[in-house]
Amino acid sequence: MSQSVRSARPNVPSQRLKMRRELAAAAMELFATKGYEETTVDEIAAAAGVARRTFFRHFRSKEEAIFPDHDDTLERAKAVLDAAPAHENPLDTVCRGIKEVMRMYAASPAVSVERYRLTREVPTLREREIASVARYERLFTRYLLGHFDESAVAHRDGDEDGLDEPLLAEVAASAVVTAHNHVLRRWLRAGGQGDVEAQLDRAFATVRRTFGTGFVASRAAADLPAGTGGTDVASGREGEVLVTVARTDAPLDQVMRTIEEALRRG
Which terminus, N or C, of the chain has the lesser number of Cβ atoms within 10 Å? Predict the structure, then answer.
């Protein structure tokens, strides 16, 4: 098949998302002018210029139509986690993943502000939004559970039994989601004005200071030789390992001094 024929084929995912957004825009306009309870699926479909069955190919209900991008955004967030570098702190990875959610809102500030107003006024839409947030939180919790460093937490707290892995992973994931939602709500209440990503980075810095030492990079990174991107430093005695922990934003010379000091102590 020639390249020109291949290029003529429609991008199915893009067409799907385009239709979902058109239906969502029609729904939001009707909800705002006519009222949520008074608006029917048939009216939303007609306003978007499609048949009722087309609506139900994309959404199961009219309240679902208000959030057309969440499924795709969840997949993008998952892709960030799946492609994380082996040396990256998992909490940093989760923070990068949830930025995909913020970018979804920031891509259309006016739409996001109107949607925020609607979800505050309509309990059914608010419940739908809460359910969507819970999906992100479950995704990040599962990821952090796979990178929990029990020994690091036990050493930090002086507790040889360590902490409950699911508890720390859930609390850390909730902290990331809470920080994101706090910044997002503040930005929406301000009419979608300002550099929301910069605000989000400042909020994540607080989360990292609180939870950043409880997790290790990819399990595979623990098997890397020293100097290949992992954070493990082998001592000169067989069977022993020294582990150093440094902030991801620490200067390189400071990281090297930390490693040298750990080796001397070992």
Answer: N
